[in-house]
């Protein structure tokens, strides 16, 4: 058939009604294949065991090619910088770097204040880590440096381990700010080194996947709660209040209450300064949004506000005349490297791990967004190493832990940034400010920095709209968001994150414990099986019960799987097995009594009793009648159905004891003797018990992704229990790795073989219908699907 004919047929099918189109496709789709169990499938498909590879062997191989590959992998700048298209990208990177640096300056000063440090250390943290990431990072668009969430986490550490109360001077009960700042700088520098060590170590052992345990609702709920923490922490600078240092659970609540209590003590000049700066920043941002299409670069509202506020503060004398607190001394030049304090490692290790994970989660989330948008790949493990080296090296130069900023990254991308050359340009601009221009901002009011921080929280505070969207989309994710938010608000940032992660993982376990269990039926004229509760046309196959779970079966839900299976089958399996065992046990007890009486009768010289065992179905059913009826009919049944032996005549002159003994022996023989003449005495029908309305059970195991020992035992118990009630069990649709795990767990034996495992549910159903009471080793027939 030519191309034009194929296109014409496809167009014809598109114009036909749905039912007619399906009929047309049905005529063109015809497959004939044999019914396949697992053994036949492996033979037909030529299953080969995967060759075992020892990855660790390549780690010790040394060659020029491998050395070069490792160098380019861990130092990506050597891979992309030689191929850098200068004419196409340089101008955009320069403009983007300048724009980011203009934002980096005020944010660095402000976020250092948020971390409880002198503002100049925010400039250090905007220089060293950015340049290190330029060498080792794989994302081309994220802007590394100070970030509000990281800064507030660092601030909680400084206020917890170096509170103001520890530096009160005995003379006038004031805080020795110089000693406090020195202690906090040493604390944060050591914290940064520890964070870097954690991140580098996790990256080298390829532990970048750890961030996958932080789902998007969790991260967004956490950052939203962190923005509330940031907002509350800046209230003391907005109102000019002196607040107590607090950390730990409920510290945010206590801080808010203290702010409300001390509001009458607010400094009016500080409040007015913060309000004016905030209004100016908001107006500039609104203007940027409105004129975005017409401006080559966004207006640097933050930088203009800082310059204007510094000039007004210096000219008017806000500190001396109105009591407005200012930044103070900003030393010019770079500081020499300082070794971390090992004595602080023990007290900081928990905080360091939390900050390391959160910082990496934020960076890799943004990095993957930009990589997907621009069509390149971000290596999560190398990102972990790059961010770790940025914090590790920065810690030696008195920087505090950093991550990437969402707002600066968006600016870097929107202004034409293509590579981390933009980051290098911004770091060089910050270097110039540190060396020459930093001291010009000594009169900058801290209230203006607080306003910069609060206005920049707009993006994170807008995440409250997630509540409405998640309510409509997925309420389980909404629950994760709310629990994360509330836990972080009440328990602080470190404990809140731990609670959020544990809750999220427990919720996953809980959801796998309560999957959707379905009884499947066949969609008419197809080999497709769907839940009969969802598809009204799906019909259960007579005599075959098909069961499926939407989640894998493992130790946490194996028992629930078995219970749901027995419940959905419509048969009380356990009760039926219990009744069967009781009746069989009763027969065995009667058989023992029978043998005992036989011995007594054989030893008697005065009487002779002839006993014959009848194993017919009528005699087995009579075993369940009342004892009186059995005694009355026992002799007659024995005489009527006797075989080779004649029934002994009973005379009126026989002794009563002999008559009683004879009747009891006949009753015992009719009810329970097992031997060659009674092979089916334990069947449900012979015992008078109700039989299930199906003869075969098919377990659709397509959802299984792995099996553990509990799963293996549960499957074996299912085989055992249903075979007790005369139902044969088959499995279907197992993936090859699952089959390999079943073999490794010695699941298959003489009673359960691969012939009980079929390639599809349809194969299992066809076999069950063709062999309702036969062994799985019966011949396989050709089947049309």
Automatic annotation (TrEMBL):
A GO-annotated cellular component: membrane
Chain segments annotated as transmembrane: 111-136, 189-214, 267-287, 299-317, 344-372, 479-510
Basic and acidic residues composition-biased segments: 618-632
Record localization: Membrane
An example molecular function term from Gene Ontology annotations: secondary active sulfate transmembrane transporter activity
Membrane topology classification: Multi-pass membrane protein
Location of the region described as Disordered in the Swiss-Prot/TrEMBL record: 595-648
Keywords per UniProt: Membrane, Transmembrane, Transmembrane helix
Keyword Protein biosynthesis: no
Record field: compositional bias (Polar residues): 605-617
Keyword Transmembrane in record: yes
Every STAS domain range: 534-768
Stated name of the protein: Solute carrier family 26 member 6 isoform X6
Species per Swiss-Prot/TrEMBL record: Panthera pardus (Leopard)
Lineage, highest ranks first: Eukaryota, Metazoa, Chordata, Craniata, Vertebrata
Encoding gene (name): LOC109247773
